[in-house]
Structures are given as C-alpha cells and as structure tokens.
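Two entries, shown back to back:
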Amino acid sequence: LSSRWQKCIQGDDNLQSMLVGTVMRKIKSRTWKKQRYFKLQDDCMTIWYKSKKPSWKQFSVGDVEAIREGHQSEVLLSIADEFPADRCFTLVFRGRRGNLDLVAESAEEAQSWIRGMKKLIENLENMGEREKLDQWIGDWFKKADKNNDGRMNFKEVQDLLKMMNVDMNEHHAHRLFTMADKSQSGTLEDDEFVLFYKMLTQREDVLRVFQEYSVDGQKLSQSDLEDFLREEQLEGGDIEQHTKQLIECYEPSETAKLLNAMTFDGFLMYLGSTEGSIFNPQRRGVFQDMSQPLCHYFISSSHNTYLMEDQLRGQSSIEGYIRALSRGCRCVEVDCWDGANGEPIVYHGHTFTSKILFKDVVNTVGNYAFKVSEYPVILSIENHCSVEQQRVMAQHLNHILGNKLLKSTLDGKAPIGLPSPEDLKGKILLKAKKIGGLEESFNGMVEDSMTGEVSDEDEAAEIDEDNLHRESVLYVFISLTFSSLIFLPPQRSKQRLSKELSDYVVYCKSVHFSSFKHSRIHSKFYEVASFTESKARKHLREAGPEFVHHNSRQLTRVYPSGFRTDSSNFNPQEMWNTGCQIVALNFQTAGEGMDLNDGLFSQNGNCGYVLKPSFMTEAEKGFDPETPQKHDHYQPVVLTIQVISGQQLPKVNIKEDSIVDPLVRVEIHGVPMDQAKQETRYIENNGFNPVWYDTLRFTIHTPELAMVRFVVEDYDKTSKNDFVGQFTLPLSCMQQGYRHIHLLSKDGTSIPPSSLFVHIRITELE
C-alpha cells in the first residue's frame, strides 16, 4: 500500500470496519432482497462481495461515481415502508451499469460505509500521476499472481502478457524476466515486478522527444524545457514560471528539483497528465460569456428522458432523469398522460413501456437539476392530459419546485427578448403549449376562464408527428405479434389547456412551424418550434441560411424520428451547423451521437450551455453551412495529426490468446465541406504499445463548428472492426504539440491507462 492509503486507513474506524467486512441486503426489487457479505480488500481499491455460493464478485472503488443516501432510487423507494432511510444507500456506477442498492443492518453501519466510500473516492481523485501508475502496476500484479503467494513465476508472467494485450515471443519475455529477477529466485517480487513492468512499458517514442530537447541526454534543464514548451507545445504567457510549476508538480527526483531540471520520469509524468493531454485545461471550466440570450447557446438536451432502454417495451424510470442531469443535460422531456386516482403519469404513449408518476419526476428534477450546473433546466412537456390532470400537474410543479420554477418574467414586465443563462441561474423553465401569448398576460387580454383551447394553427407539431410515427410503428408491432387484433390509433383532436399550467409557460411556448417566411414576420422570440430529424434535415438542405437566421432569434428543438424504436441517435452535428439549440438525443444509447454530444459539452464547465459562434448569432451575417467560404470571417485551417503510438489498449475479445490489431481513425464532424475521416495502418497483434508514426491531414473550413473524434478499432479482415476506445472534443479545445489522448469506453467512461500519443499542428490555410 502507498503511504497515502496507509495514512488514510490509520485511525479511520469506517475504513477499518470495511476491511473487516459487513453483511448487508442487496435489493433488486420489492421481492428480491438477499443478504450478501461485503468487504473492502487490503488494496483499498476493490470491494468484494459474496453470497452463499463459493464465488466472490467484485467492483473497483474507481467505478463508483456517486453515493446516494436514503431512499434515492426507484428500487429503494419501493421498499421504503419496510426499511428506514437511514439504513439505505445506493452506489451509482459510471457509464450505463446498473446501480447497487443496499440496506445495512443498522444506521451506524450504513453511515460507516457511506463515509468510508466517500473517503476512498476522494483519495482516488486526489491521487498523483506516480501513485496512479503504482496502482495500475499493483492491479496487474494481483491479476497475474494466480496462486496469491505474493510472487510471480514465469508461467504467470506469460499469462499476464496475454492479459495485457502483448504478443511477445517466449525468448524475449524470458530475457526481460531474467533481467528483472535480481534475486535470481526464479520469481518476481515487489520491486522486481515494478522493474519488469518498467522495461515492458519503456516509452521509446517519448524518449526520442526527450533526447531531442535535452542538451546532455540525461535531463531537461529549465532552459531545455522552456524551449520544448515554446517550440513544440506552442505555449505563450509566462513560460519561465510555467516551467518551474511543471518541475515542481511532476518531477519525482528531489535532486533534479534542486537543479531546476526534469528527468525522463518527470517528463513522462507531465505528458501523461491533464496538462499534457489533448484537451486544453483552460477550457474545462466555465470560460464563455453566459449573459447572452438563451437562443445564442447550444443546450445539452435529452429525448424521452424517462426511458432506460428502447421506445416500445423499455422501462420508464426516474433514474433516466438523474443520469441525464448528472451528465450536465439542461433540457429533459416529460411525456404526460392521464393516470389512475387523478395522478398524471409519464411514459411513452401507445407503447408497452412502463409508467412512472409525474410527481416523482418533478421531485427528481427538483433534487438533481443543479447538482452539476447552476444554469437553467428546461422541462419539455409533451402534454396529453385532461384539463383536470393538467391542474394536478400545475399543483405538483408549484408545490414541489417552489421558487425554482419560473412562473413569470424575471422583472415582472413584458419582455422584449430572451433572458440569458446567467439571468436564469437556478431556475426551471417549462416548455409546453400556452393559451395566447406572453404579451397578453401583461395587457389583460387573457380571459379569466380556467381553460383555453389550442387551435390547429398553434398546436405543437411534435406531438402529432411523434405520435403518428409511434402509432404506425406500434401498429406494425402489434399486427405482427397479435395477428388477429385490430388496432385503431387514436384520432387527433383539438386540445383544451388548463390556465394554471399554461401560465407557467413563460419563455418557451411550443408552437407549430409553418415556414421561415411566416416566422420572420409573425413569430415571437419566446416561441419554440420542434422538428423531427427528417423535417429539420429537409429545412437545412432547402433553406440553410434562413434556418440559421431563425435560430439567431428563437429556440428550436430537434428530436429523433419515431421510427428509431431501438432508441438509436442521429448525428447531432448537422443540426448544430444551422444553430439548432435543443438537439435532443437518447442519452441512454451509447455511440457516435452521444460521443459528439459529450465532446461538445465537455467544455465550459460541463454546464450544458455552449455559446454558438458569433456568425450564427448575428442575424445579418447570413451564414450558410453549405458554403462557409462566403461568410465574412472565413479563415480555414489545416489540422495535421501525427498518430505516434498507443498505450495499454483494452482487450475487446474475451478469448485469452486474442490480441488486438489496432488502427486509429480520425473523424472530422462539422459543416458538410469539413466532414472527413482518415485511418492509420493497423498494427498486428499489439494492443499494449503499438507504434504508427502515421500522419493525417485535414482542411477545415469552419473550425469554430468542427468536432474531432479519435476512434481506436481492432482490425478484422473478415468482419466489422471491433470498437476499442474513443475520444471526442471540439477543435477549438485542442492543445497543440505532443499530447496524450486518454481514451473513453463505448459509454463515455474513462479506461485508464489506455491512451494514444499524438502530435498536433493547426495552421492557417495559405
């Protein structure tokens, strides 16, 4: 154990108790409640748990994203009458892995695990680069030491190499083993294994760069490091001061620190750190102007937020809202229908998806809306309820959300434009149909009657279109399943609205879209049109500049086609190219669409709002994504990426002797002229330390909108390549020079220590 963990454990009763182990109930449903023995392992990184069967299951502390206390999951809410909240807690895992709901034998035991887990996670987050490396080495040792005797024989080393994606001939492996076996015992222990690992992971690619800038070939003096930062990393500002900070932060040798120098180990630590990564750390926090109108921002948005799976038979769950909001999503969808006992319900209408209560959704949104971002959340309401249940919806919204719910304009006066995310901090906005307009509520034009009717002209188009798709798909589904059943989809009719619910719609009134010409003359800034992806695509192809102009004045929502019953996603980039703000994706579905969404919103504090380029917000600019070279500030760039090497790529094939044949594909997503992809060669049988030195070049005409996606795949000449890892970021957030790209899994979670080493140059096109 490192000194950090030893200090962490000493005197901590919670961790001591976790090391001894505890019996707790694992809960899966109201009827599935089984006792399991949970124990923290001596590495303070792994939790093992066991049932009556002899086998143990385990998970890493690093896999846990959050701990929720009390009845804060659907499963624990369902057994709230049986087990008190102070004995219950939920472990939430990264990515799309299911939660672990637990009930301790006493409130004290529950608190012991909650506090202990929080401390372990905090320690893990504060780990230095050197400690992380030690941790990985320790993990590999444990995996390879099959007989748990604390040492490793040559057979165990050979098995380890296969686990690590290394295809090495026996002679070479034995040579490294013998060199590391300083005690000549025929086994590797502690420091000997560390030496073996270091020889195995020797970074010739980084050594080459180090020696190019090191005057004596042994260390980088302060002057050498300054040259490297200036000439290769293209850093500006106070380079002398930054050099001193890097040496202080990453250099492990105290002797080198006294000489104001950096050894190769320190250089490797720096290049593997956040500062040495491809993503510019200065763009991680909120750095954009947040005081512009809402329509000037791209807004992270979720479609059918309540669904955890597909659109026909999937489970509806409040967990969908928790997960979306925890990822920085700022616009969630609530599909409301009349329920039993006068309580509105949320589910995907006309399908077999399960149902949840509207008030539970509102409660969840209230609890989680501002945990990761203080900027406004938009509740996109798809309202199918009777007037009576709409009144219940309004009561729940008011009672549960209180002051968080925006009930009137910010200053109580008739507004002339949309407020900004800054103005609306901590507020939840309703996007729904509304009786009349915003101005009428200030000049006494709205009738005092408790209901109003939405005319065909005003009726929100998305409900009709989505229902028609859904109903036709369901009709086919039911016809195939129950051939004798005759299914008649419900007919469309005008809808009556409750005034109470309508009054809570302030800056986001859902309206039917007629044409851009009609909108330019008649539409109000607070009106929001919604389009299916196919309708949006038609408009952007036929009238791109008009679409951009429309989106400079008001909000637009785009959502996936009703035919995507598998909850797949479209590519959001083409919608962003025309300035559509609310591009709603199925957050529960991993893949290219969500990679791009995560990539775009990973900047600006992951707050869910990203400022559009100025040529898209100034109405008179007339930007056309089809012909970007025609806009005033047109400045294309050339992006040159040298893909140098990969490090410890994960295995994708579970067969023990299968080794990855990796290739790297770089994709540019942007305006149509910029859409491009190029690949490196594939390297046969080496997922551990493949080396390419392949150079890829792209001309990018609208760099302000370009996203760059790095994808690693396992080459297969007979079938589709297997996905290994990816990383996506805006071109504007890229750091130049020698950089590491820390790869993410299919569902967007990190997979350390897997990375790519690249060299980046961005130059203006002559």
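entry 2 starts here
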Amino acid sequence: MNPSAEFVEQGMSPQNVKRASCMSVITLAYQSLGVVYGDLSTSPLYVYKTTFSGKLSLHEDDEEIYGVLSFIFWTFTLIALVKYIFFVMSADDNGEGGTFALYSLLCRHAKLSILPNQQATDEKLSTYATEASADTWQSSALKSFFEKHPRFHKVLLIFVLLGTCMAIGDGVLTPAISVLSAVSGVKVKITGLHENYIVIISCVILVGLFSLQHHGTNRVAFMFAPIVTAWLLCISSIGIYNIFRWNQHVFCAISPIYMLKFLKNTGTEGWVSLGGVVLSITGVETMFADLGHFSSSSIKVAFTFVVYPCLILAYMGEAAFLSKHHEDIQRSFYKAIPESVFWPVFIVATFAAVVGSQAVISATFSMISQCCALNCFPRVKIVHTSSKIYGQIYIPEVNWMLMCLCLAVTIGLRDTNMMGHAYGLAVTTVMFVTTCLMALVMIIVWKKKILTAVAFLLFFGSIELLYISASVYKVPEGGWIPLVLSLIFMAVMYLWNYGTMKKHQFDVENKVSMNRIVSLGPSLGMVRVPGIGLVYSNLAIGVPAVFGHFVTNLPAFHQVLVFVCVKSVQVPRVSENERMLISRVGPKEYGMFRCIVRYGYKDLQQENYDFENRLVSGIVQFVETEEESASKLTSESFGEFESTAFKCLVDPDHPYTSSSQKEKMVQSTCDIQAEVAKTGSERPENTQLKHESLRILKAKESGVAYILGHSHAKAKKSSSIIKKFAIDVVYTFLSKNSREPDVVLNVPHTSLLEVGMIYYV
C-alpha cells in the first residue's frame, strides 16, 4: 500500500502535501510528542504499582521483578513497535487513522456501508478511490460472503462501535488515573497528608482541565511538546541513573525466559497481574487515531527514536530500583527519583498527566463527531475551536459528561490500582478490535493471502486476548466500569441508529409518486409564489412525503423548488468543489431541482459560508451548462423523471456571500437581462436558458424559505413492552434533547417552516 499523503496542522489538505522534507518530518515528529504521546508517556506512573497489587505483592524477589520487566519490554516492542508502527500505521484512509478509518476502507472496498442514500456518483469522489489491483480469490470469497449475508454488515458496525465505546471509556479513565497518580506522588514527601486531600486536589485539576476545553487545544498546544519532551528526558535520565546505581544486570530481563519463569513461579497470580502490565501500552491506539494531524513518517520517527528508548529506559531503571527496594513496591516511581530533583520531576509529571488527558479528551470529541456522521449518536453541538488547524473541535455536552464521569470515578474509587484494572480492559478491547479489522483490511484492501492475515490475527490477537483474560478477572475490582460505560453508550448508539434507519425507511416507503407530480402540470396544482423553497429531506431520490404533507395543508409553494439532501459518505473528507450535486427534477418548466450536499465522517456538517448563495450559484451554473453537457454526460436513471446529476463545481473562494456578493448577484441579473435583450433574435434555446437563469436569480431576491420535517417516532401498538420503552421513552428523550436539524444545518429561524409528521416503527 502506498504511504499516506501527509499534511501539517496549518490546515493543509492531505492531497496538497506529497513529500515531506527531512526538516519538516523532524518538526512534525517534535510536535507529535505533545499531542500523540502524552498518554503513553505517563504510563510509568502506575504500571509497576498496579502490576504488583494484590497477592502478587507477596512475591517480591528479583526473578519476578525481572519477569514483569520482560513482559513490559516484549509487550511494548511487539504491540507498540511491530504491530502499530510497522503494520497498522500503513492502513490509513487518505491520511486519516483510527478505528473508523479501517471501517471506512472496508466499507468502500467490500460495499459494507449501511449508510442510507449511497449512490454510484459517490464513488467518483477523489477521496473514494480504491486500489486498481485485481481481487484475489480470498478477497473475492470474503466480499461474496458479506454480500450474501447482509446481516454481517450490522455485526461489523456493532463490533466497530464496541471498540469506539471502549475508547470513550478510555476518555473517562485516562484523566482520572493519570492526574490521581501524578498528584499522589506528593505523599512520598508529605507522609501525613490525608488521602482526601489528594482526591480534592485531583478533582480541582480535573475541573480546571475540562473547564478550559472550550478555548481549544490550539491555545495551549505550544506548551504540549516541550512538556512531554521534558518528561521523557526526565524519566529516561532517572532510569539510566537507577540502572547504574542499583542494578546494572537488569538488562538480562530482556530475555523471554524470565517471562516463562514468572508464569511458572506465580501461576494464577502472575497471570492476573498481566492486567497491570498492559497499562504500559495505553495510548498506542492514539498514535494511529491522530495520524490525520501529522504524518506517518513523523509519528514513526518520534516513537522509534524518542518515545520507545526513553520509556524502555524508564521501566528498566524502575525495575533496577525495585530489585533493591522491595518494600517500596507501591511507591516505586516517586521513590526512585533522586532527592535533589524530586520536586521538579513531580511538577513535570503533573503537567504531563494533564497533557496526556487532553489528548484523550480531544480524541473522544473526534470519535463522537464521527459517530454523529454515521447516524450512530444523537446530534450534539460541535464547535470548531481553531480556524487554522482542521479537526480541532469542542462538544460541550460531551465535555461536561466526561467531567462528571471522571469526578465520579476519582471520588468513588480513590485507588489507582482499581482504576488500572478498569483501564486495562478498555485498552485491550480497543486493540483487539483494531487487530481484527486489520486482518480484514489485509485480505480485502491489500489483497494479501489469507494465511498472512490469519498469522497476523493469531499472533497479535493471542497476545491481546491473554491480556483481556487477565483484565476480565479483575471485573469485580474496577473492571466493571468500562463494561458498564460501553454498554450504555452501545445502547444509545444502536437505538439512535435503529430509529434513524427506520425514519429513512418510512421516508422511502411514503415518498410522493413522480407520476403524480408530473400529472399536476407545471403549477403542481397549486399557486406558485415568487421565491425559492428549500425542502430538506433524508432522500437522495424521489419527492419526500413532507412535501406532499405541506402542500396538502397549504396549497401554495415557491416558484423555484429545491429538494436538499444532506448526507454522509464513507470517506474522511469531501473537498469543497465536490460538495454539492445538482440535478433537475421533472421537466424544465416545473422549476424543480435537487441538491445533494455530501460530507465525510471527519467533516463538520455546518456551513461556514452563505449556503443560499452558493446553492443558487450552483443551480444557475447547472442550468447554463445543462444543454452544453447533455451530449457529454451519460444518462443516469434514478427510477423516476430526474435528469442526470451534475457535479456542481462552485469555486469555494468566490461564492455569492456577504454584502458585496449581493451586488454581484444584482450585477449578474442585469448582465443576464442585457444578454437576453441582445439575443432576442438568436437561438431560442439560448434565450430560454437565460430566461430560466434570470427567473432563478429573481426568485432568490424574493426570498428563500426552508421547509424541514419535524418527525416523531412511535412504537406500533403491537410492539413489545421493551420496544415501546426503547422507542417511546428512550429514543423520544434523545430526540428531544439532541440538536434540532435546523440548528445543525444553520438554518435562519426567520425563514424556517417545520412540518410535523409521525412515523411508526
């Protein structure tokens, strides 16, 4: 697979940067330290402490400490370095990474998407391109299997959502365990400090962290890289110091023999303790998820040459200290710090914990935004916090929800060991989901042999299942937290997706017949008043039921009618010049058009420009080029009387916006009038085209009205009690408390008309 296109944070698109110079790679690698590796680099705060909790603390001899270090070294090397750096980082989706990127690749190559309104024209998007290599018999067989069993499309989505929900749980646990672990270090110097004060200080830091989210990470991002860099240098230097002072033979623990001895000597207790070892790789998924903000090469350079050696030295140094100080097993990290540098390291550790928490919180915002795009989460307010750095967002509802959950975990558990048990289960589940998706990507996308994919799945999957089994054993001791959180989020996501898909099914089954529309004549059997009417619908094809319901109660409509469908496409982003598809509905004299507005799962479905004028500009361009393009465009049947879809190539830098654009609009109207007067004796079809353009522009000057359907779902009387509760109570509650479509679409309230409808599921 070709390396992903790379782009810097200053808003450059992946397609604009093909090759990064050595200097730019180093610069990006430095910047990635603060954003990507904050969570991973703070793991030494609690790994040994959590691993040697419980009954394993009774076996504190050197051989067992070496065994734990051996497990940490090989886990960190095989999972973080080999799996993620050498394999997973290559499976990007147009430069984007994360679980949704893998899912998107599979959806495009194997037609697995369950998103409604998918059309053949979507495959012509520049970011939709799939590899031209021929399918192998393995990939063909797997695609055929998914094609014959559509229910597995839903199973795959649920599997992806499971990983996403566990990652959201990670967003709750990371700030709690990182901040509490960092602050608890003060007890090493102030031994009489009560635990309640540690919890209060941690809660104050957490409240401050979440309260600053609305400013956006770009305001403090310049501090992130220096803090994490200073932290990595501190812990690696202390590690080297401890190795040479306490035990220079600790390097022997690299031998895998110590892992076998550890399991043999400790038995079940050693196996259960692996739930603490896995905390050493918390944050590796962030490397892949944040690929879109940096480049693959920069993240690989930062990890291979900075993060990996620094953390390995830190773990070795702490093991060397423990080999001579068995009694400090629960306070080993801060006890291993030399007296002279304790307080500076403590301050840096606290800042590093905050930075690591910030990265996970931002990733949670991104995941929720992607779930909204896939119709798997209620509509929430999404704020773009940076005009320069694409993708930095803030979601108020999610932010305060995370804060409350973090405070509840911190106050309720008060113990980093119990938090670690919960944390380990969430992390390992997300990694296992990635491994399974990667195996499918190898067969379907990369066209590798099935034996290669199976070997990958068995090797890395077995390691992750080993850690999952150890974490599951700790469910009663804190591991239940991510399970409960993920089940709640899964229920919300599945129910919202179910209700949304049922609404779309209702719209498809109740759309107005085009034959009926045509039979009414150009006036559509009602009064056509000056202006443009925008009817928002979930349908990319056909006339929505909301239109029929509207004209039944109010038999008048605008001179120009446009059906607008805002939909998501299974790509990360859609460029501005490919955003809109314009087509004509019915004969020309009916004055009806359709506009399909397309977004990727990383795009924000909020327009920052004047949508009205851009739309009118696109329709005028469509009308004026329709005749010229008729001989070039292939006829595409939509099953009705719609004409061929035309990709509206509106220049995003020169839309009809602001007051100056109104002058341009008037000027263009005068130009068309003048041309119509001049061409009165010319070809009648040209005159007709100019008249139609003039009619559309005049309709725009008369005003634009927005017509939205306000649908309410109700369970059928024959439904079970559980379904009635799910639809009539839970789904209705989510619908009433989610963002209204007019707010998401940025519709002006003075021009809004809502049509109420009820659909039964």
